[in-house]
Write a structure and sequence with these properties.
The protein has three helices and 14 strands. With 200 residues, it is mainly β. Helix content is 13%, strand content 49%. It has one domain.
Length: 200
Amino acid sequence: MASIAVCAMLSAGCASQRGGLSELEGGAEVGLRRGSGWSTLKVRPPHVIGPRVTLRMTKGEFSGSIDGSPVHLRVADDGIDGSGPLGQVSIDIVEGAGQTLIEGTWNATRVHFTVTEQSLRGAIAVRQASTFGEVAFCQYTLDRVEKDGARSGISICDGLPEETRLEVPRAVQKWLTRHELVVVLLALLSSPPLTSLERE
């Protein structure tokens, strides 16, 4: 079923745990590797915190910032809406036929992901680190499931394809609803580690 696909997408154990705020003690670290670079988010409800992301969950809402710009998102039964760091967020989450579709707008630009038990494919708008205020897109094709449950494949963020790995601990599934997990996933995929060519 499609709900199983979302859980499978977010099932890997993270390779490392780092210290941090006392509020995050006992949390789990979600990780995205592109090439040799990592982006991570430490999740311990109600907090989701990383180098470029600071979010707090309260009664089905996320508030905080991504890349220093304010974020306020509401999670509903059929999707996510609100405002992202660069504009409107309005996302439908449709489950069925062995896949989950995540589509709509993120930062007032189109976002689309198709998730199955074996793959995660799609694209999302990101803010380039050295061009503040400008928007680019990252395209992800993660079509391998590793023995530890991580998703791997390639991603392109305005440069050459990079080997990419997505890790999300099983513990996160116990703490968040499926749609809350999608918010965390989109926050991570929209703030990826960039290569030196992509920063130019």
